[in-house]
Amino acid sequence: MDQTIWFCVVQFLKFGPWLLYFHILVFYVLSLLYGRFWLHVVSNSAKHTKYFPGITILKPLMGVDTLLEQNLESHFNLQYPKFEILFCVADDHDPVIDLIRKLQKRHPNVDSRLFVGGRSGILNPLVCSMAPAYEASKYGIVWVSTSRIQVNTDIMMDMVTKLSKPKAALVHQMPFTTDQKGLAAAVEKVYFGATVCKYYLSLHVLGISCFTGMSYMLKKKHLEDVEGMAYFGKFLAEDFYLAKYLHDRGFQFHVAAFPAQQNVASTSIINFKNRMVRWLRLRLNAVPLLSGVFELVTESVPLGIYAAWSAYTVFGLNPFLWFCGHWTVWLILDYIQLKVVQNGPLPFSFSTYIVAWLIRELLYPVVYIEAICNVRQIKWGQRTYYLSDFVNL
Q: In what order do the strands lie in the sheet with 83-89?
């Protein structure tokens, strides 16, 4: 390699961390400002609206969790003039069917139906399960609410009000968690309330499509050209391609004023790690450069090591002290971010936060290494999928 080119490469590598720090700072500022001044603000129109379009709630389910009955009951307890709940179950031997029927008997005045078996020819298991219910839905607005999600009437009113805006096609909830006991629950809350939030909200501010399919509301008419939700069943990351489809057509997305309340009792560090591996593999296949390189070097551990080397090489600073300072500032900023999203007291002490934060940050290199091994293989529930079977994903 020519010496001039090599010199430029080395200089770029030396100063690369400072460009990455600037990027991280911008994302922190945007997410903190949005979280502080706009995230939790419910519009006056949501409080006083007389706009009550019919809403179909799609509830894909598999298996029974300790808090699942509480989550499903929250949907039956919604105070809204016109809605239906369509339960979607793939296996007719799934124990969740008995729970659904028990709740239907408990709430006979709520319009609800059970769909079992899915639609053949669809590879994505979630879309396969929901497709028949989507096609049989009565109303023009569909709310996809996965099994972990607990809801209330305020959430529903806020989402449908935001969706009533002329160019709005999709309203989504930023993923978060309810207050549960245990270290694993604290790790999940720290991850969603600090790491995910930082990018979720800042990308939304920048007008870049970013949402997860945990809880979102859309207008069916915008999917008529592709014959509905079933079209996205050829992608394993159906939420990514659904958002891309709508975003490419110039529609607007809105973030709900209430973060999604994932309400799960039985969680563990191992289950959390496996979930992160699955999500990262999906991102690596959807946006390989962004997730494989950029995401890696903007995590606190890789960037801290990289910046410590640069600080020593360029300025002669002690790399160990630099890394300690780097981590301390990152930890504090994440804590501020988490408090903004929580919008109230945290269910654990600051010392527990530090432990949970350290676990999450130190776990990322493990997640990354495991994800890039067998990157085309996705384990989802009891099944394993190979991405070569899908279109793109």
A: 112-116, 83-89, 55-61, 141-145, 215-219, 168-172, 252-255
